[in-house]
Structures are given as C-alpha cells and as structure tokens.
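Late entry, evening session. Most of the bench is empty. Finally got around to the prediction I had been postponing all week. Sequence below, unchanged from the version circulated by S.P.
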Amino acid sequence: MLISCGLTRLSYSTEKLLSRFVSKMSTFVSHANPVTGKMDWIIQDENYDYHQEIARSAYADMLHDTERNQKYYDALKIAIKMLHDRGQKAHVLDIGTGTGLLSMMAASAGADSVTACEAFKPMASCAAKIMQRNNLGHKINLIPKRSTDLTVGPDGDMPHRANVLVTEVFDTELIGEGAIGTFNHAHRELLVDDCIVIPRAANMFAQPVSSDLVRRWNQIDTSNIEGSVPCEVSRCGGAPSLHDLQLDQIPAQQFTALSAALKVFRFDFNCKGGLKPDRRSEVTVSADSDGTVDAVFMWWDCEMDPKGEIILSCAPRWAHPDGSKLPWRDHWMQAIYYPSNPLPVSKSESFTLVSCHDEYSLWFDVTRQGDTSQVLERPLCTCGFHTTLSRTRIGMMGDPHRVSILKAALKKHVKETSVCLCISDGSLLPVMAASRARKVFVIETNPMYKRITEALIQQNSLRDRVTVIDKQPHEINQSDLHNLQVDVVVGEPYFSSSMLPWHNVHVWYAIYDLEAHIAADAVVLPGRMVIKAVAMDFDHLWKIRAPVGVCEGFDITEFDRLIESSSDISDSNVEPQPLWEYPGKALSSAVDVIQLQYKEVMEKSVEASVELQMETNGCLNGIALWTEYEFRDTGTVTTGPRKSLRIGENVDWDYYTRQGVHLLKTPRIVSAGHTISLKIQFNPQTGEFDFCFKT
C-alpha cells in the first residue's frame, strides 16, 4: 500500500515551542499564507530552494519524449558515420548536456572524442555518475561550465575545436533560452568551419486564427455585463510574453484557421556567418473565410540530420506531418501571440502577417495589406491590465458561464438599498453590483489591482457609488465604510495569491476580520465550498513526475534518485495544473471530499475521509481535485469539469483555472471495483489543507 501525505504548516506559537528541537538541516521560513492572508512560519529544509530548483529542472518529460531522443540518436549516428566515411575523426561537443544522454549517444555511436558542458552544478554531478554507471565516463570529458566559458587549446577545456555540435537549447519559442547566442559563440570559438550541427536548422510557422475563446485570454469580454473596460485596454498590444500551451487541446470548434500554416522564419544553425539576432518578415495572406484575426498560433520544427531528412515537428495535430499520431511533449509546446488590435477580414481578402524576433523572443502583428508602418517594434502593455492580470484571469473575468452565475446572484440578493462589499482581486464585480446597490465598497490592497479597479470605476462613471479601500480587512474601520453597515458580501472568489482552488476560501477569512461591520443577517456569497475528487487515467501528464529508468538503452536511474529526493523535500503531494491541457479519462465518479460552510468554517478543525471506487478498468496515475463555490440557490462556480463526468471518457475541464492533482509515482493498472482512500484535514487557524492518499 502506498501512502502519500502532505506537510503540515505550523502556527507561530508551535514554532516557538519546537524551534529548539529542529535539526540543523531544517529552518523556519516566513511565508505568506494564501488562505489566511497572514504571515506564518513553516519548517523547510535549509537547502529548500536548491532542492526545488532540482525538482523543477524539467528534464524528466524530455527524457520521456521518445521521438525526440530517437531522432537525436539517429542524427548523431548519421553525422559520425559521415565523418568516418570521409576518413575524418568525429569530435563531438554537447552543449548543455543535462543528464549526459546526448553525449552518451555520441560515444556509443562511435565518436572519437566527446566534450560535454553543463553549467547547472547538481546536474553536472549527476551526469558524471550516469556516465560512469553506463561505462562511458572514460569516453566523455564533462566540464561543469557554460559553453561561453569554455576554452580551446593545449591547456584549455578542449584540446582542439569540435567538428560535430549537438545541443538542445530550445524552448517553446525556440530561441528563448539564448539559442542564437549559443550557436553563434560556438561557431566563432569552439567549432571548425566545416562542422556538422545537430539539429542543422529549424523552421518557424505561424497561423492566424479567429476565436472567441482565445480572444478572451487577451481582451476582457464585457458583452454580458452592464459595463465596459477603458478603451485603452482594448487598444493595448497586451503582455509582451508568449502564451504557451498545448494548442492540440483547444477544441476544433473553438477556433477558425484563417489560412494554412505559414513559414515565417528559418534558423540555419550550421551558418558559419552566424544567426542574425533581429529579423522581421512580412507574408501576404489571403483569408480562407470571414472572421477576425484574434491571435496567431506558432510552432516550429527541426531538421535533425545533415541532409534535413529527419524532421522533429512541434506542430499541432492539424499541421503535423504524422497527422493525429502525435508524440507528447510538455517541454516544447506551441504558443499564442496576440496582435495589437484584432483585425476583421473577409473571405479572400488579403492582409499582412508581420513576424519579428530579437535574440530571445518573438512577436507578431497583422495589418491591412501594404500598411505595416504602425506595427509595434516590441509588444508593450500600456494599460496596466495585461501586466497585472494573468491571461487565465482575463479569460475568467469574461467567461460567460461564470458571469451568468454572478449576475443571477447579484440580481436576487442585491437591492436598491443594499450596501455591498466586494472581495476579490481585480474583479468586474464592483461594476456589476453598482448597477443595483445603493453603495459598493471594494477592498484592493495591491496597488496594481487598485489601479485596475479605479480605471473600471472611472470608465463606468461610478465614483459616487463605488469606493475602493486599500487597507487589509483587519485594518478597516467604520469611517472607511462611511459609517454604513454591509448587508451583502460577494466574492468571485479569486485571489492572485491562490495556487490551488481551495485557497480562494481566503474570502471568508477577510469577512471574519470585518465581522463588526457586517450585519448579522448579511448575505454572504459564496456561502459554501465543496472540494471534489475523481480518480484519473491521464494520457501523459503522469510522465512529468514519473521516473525514467532506462532511456534509449542508457541507465538514468541516478537522475531519478536525484529528482525524487529533491522532490520529497520541496514538493507538495498536490500540485496545481491546468488539466484542460492534459487529456485524461475518469475512472471513478466525482465524490465530495469535504464541505465547508461560511458560518462554520472558523469554528473547529475538520477532517474527512472518502473512498474513490474505480468504475472501469484503466491505468490509475492521478487524483484530480477541484472546488465548487455555491452562490446559494442561484448557481455554482466550479473550478473543475465544465460538463458532467462520464466514466471512461475524457474530462472537459475549466479553461480558466488550475486544478489540484496528485500524481502517483508508480501508475497502477486497476480494474473496476478497486478503491483508493483520500483523507483531508483542514485547520482553520493555520488555513492548511493536508491531503493523504492511500492507493
């Protein structure tokens, strides 16, 4: 039986009592509790940050990417054979070796010498052990440095320049990890002129699309409320960073491609003259249908071998050379970019797609044909909304389903005489409530969120009806509330500090701090929270925490031990994930794990135990958890499935929130009738939810 339990947070008084007994390997760390909103103390290993960096090093899902591994191996074999056929020795340089996998592949493929560099010292140490375990340590010169710090010469790190470069320094944007500078420096300082580079080139593709769902992640949709956002928000270029996600998981009916995928850039990694750090391309596009260019989808592929015959593609299913038989990878996804303004187009109308990149990032825009003078040199948020609110938060604010529930609750419970208090970060609730209430107060202690709320108030001419209070709830006095008593308290609930769905119960802690200013019979919305759970058979998500074992014939268990030991120190047994991006089937019905009522939540600790019974056969590899917030009899806001669960079918998760997920270290094949136990403890004094799983 496998038992996995969460860590318990300590109160300050407990910390004082136990501090003298804490080992030298642990330390107390001051921590902002997302539930209580207070600072408290938790016990952490003194090297917590170090272990967290190792645990989050994200090599594991790459090592589970069989296609990536095999195509690198095949390309290395071809390159080394090509040199040997010419009568040349193969001297391989592996930049950013990580676990040492590519170096071991090169050595096994017959390379005459292999030099590997790895700047992340814990991983370099791990790679050395892995190489020794695979009896290849004597064939590989491992140097714990950045490639830009390597020296060449009789007394240098490398006795001579290499004639084969193999590296994986790519991210979702391809160039975001500094690939351009890495390749240029290597050609200039570390490689011979007629070297072979693996991969030899990459091609970048872009596709303009029309989509209400995608647009909501960048523009606040106010079509369903009595209000609007400032015009500078809708005209803003948006956040400068990419929006990376699994494009494959956006349902086909949720977007319309306005053209086929277009090649916008080619990166020749074998170019002796170096890659240009700044480029711009313009492509004329003829719209395939009527629509609005709301976004640009982007992905890339790599030509792995010297002849460019082995292609590793990151394209989504509709543009992938292998069609629907896609390899899964979480380290290279696809990305969405938003134009400075959505562009309406008609079928067959021509427009221009403008693509730009600098040394580390990309951006895209669309214009009428021939008019590219106003294309931004670099996206920049000028309104403050896009740099304060996450993309999922922007989408949540305009989500029609969520908005309809909030509107129904306000319509029923807010009267013309009501004094309403809104508690949520950066919300449209004050605008919605002001159309009904006598007076609305909003608590916004974060200066950035306060700026957003005040901009919404100004835009909708509500200064006489809505007042922003920039104090912590326990600091608020009667004069801050204009000597009025609050009779309706409402939260979405949403707080930017919340990592897991149940953290938003913070709204009730804020209300308790304000109890003296709230009527005894006040309406509190939401008034009930339920944490729910379902047993899952995820297609691939489990791989991000699963041990690798043997990878392409190489023993990587030393890496598994390193990651697991650091994860045990730094990770919780429930982590947040946007599950809509990770397909998985429900193996059980959803069960209520624990129910909390506003009036009762602060009275005493709560403990609950449930069993999840498998109702179909499958691979049990995770438990998904989410919350539902009940707005009395007007509806329920869920952070979980958008539709009713069907046993044995993929779950349709909410687009705008992250769920909690417990991933089993060892997936288990189970049959219908198999049960697992879940126990939860909630301590209202500390605000801690502790989970224990028995599988």
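Two things to note before I forget:
The mean pLDDT is 91.
The first helix runs from residue 12 to 18.
Will write this up properly tomorrow.
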